[in-house]
Amino acid sequence: MRPEFSVIIPVHNKLPHLERSVFSVLNQTYPHFELLLVDDASTDGSSEKLLEFDDSRIQLLRRDTPGPGGYAARNAGIQHATKKWVCFLDADDEWTPDVMETLARIVQEDAEVEILSWGWLKVKGNSRKPDPYSLKYKDEKIKQFTLTDFFNGPQPMWTGGISMKKELITIAGGFPETGFKRGGDMDTWIRCLWQSKKNLRITKPMTSYYLDSVNMVTKAVERDVAYSFSSSIQNIQQSTTDKRLKKAIRYFQNRRIYKILTEKVDGGKSIDYSLLFKMNLSLSFYYMCLKLHVKKLLIETRLRKPQL
């Protein structure tokens, strides 16, 4: 039986980018899909623009109140999806034409797979850089991964490059509509991986992630540690007997805190010790702590250096 896909695009004030994202789905070489466009109470003309797309595969949904991160909008799309597989794309990003053809071939060959993810390009101006996972495993076309791999990194999943069975994400609870201004998608992937039996990563980049788009959550909302210490992760830590998984979670949490602290130091701020001491005590803690203080010292030394 041929696989069919429901593609979900949440839209909140993304007018300049809508044609790029929507047509990248409508122009897929594989025709067996539906496209759910979820207008998340846009006010910039996006609502009117969405009405202009004339294609029988489109289902247009409307929400009256926008939700943080587009999480509630994605849930609305999942609830209305009629196909076995769901995919997600942000309204300012873009797929290559062969995304669903590639997914369909793998699904037909492997009946056990429940999550498929693929590589992406970070695009800014003329720069197009593959994601770290694609670079690390560039010699492997397809690679199986687990929740432990997710925590250890590099990141094998991202919202614009993922497809999974609708049943799986429904069982996992969908996207969190409260409690997260940012990082709710990562919390969702963690819960889905905890439930899934087999996950495959296509190394080839097939999504363009535009870093210079308008109204980006990643620009408007600061990073925090919410999803790194979420109830989802706490439940996994309490439930699992897998020592490798527990170690990977602690490393993941430390790495997240280190990234936030590094950004603050690079921005000229002091080290936030209340956040630093949320790290788990391990070799990675001592290494990251040392590295952070050396970075801070070098920045301060450079600032004090007299101009010649």
UniProtKB/TrEMBL annotation:
<dbReference type="GO" id="GO:0016740">
    <property type="term" value="F:transferase activity"/>
</dbReference>
<keyword id="KW-0808">Transferase</keyword>
<dbReference type="InterPro" id="IPR029044">
    <property type="entry name" value="Nucleotide-diphossugar_trans"/>
</dbReference>
<feature type="domain" description="Glycosyltransferase 2-like">
    <location>
        <begin position="6"/>
        <end position="132"/>
    </location>
</feature>
<dbReference type="InterPro" id="IPR001173">
    <property type="entry name" value="Glyco_trans_2-like"/>
</dbReference>
<dbReference type="Pfam" id="PF00535">
    <property type="entry name" value="Glycos_transf_2"/>
</dbReference>
<dbReference type="InterPro" id="IPR050834">
    <property type="entry name" value="Glycosyltransf_2"/>
</dbReference>
<protein>
    <submittedName>
        <fullName>Glycosyltransferase family 2 protein</fullName>
    </submittedName>
</protein>
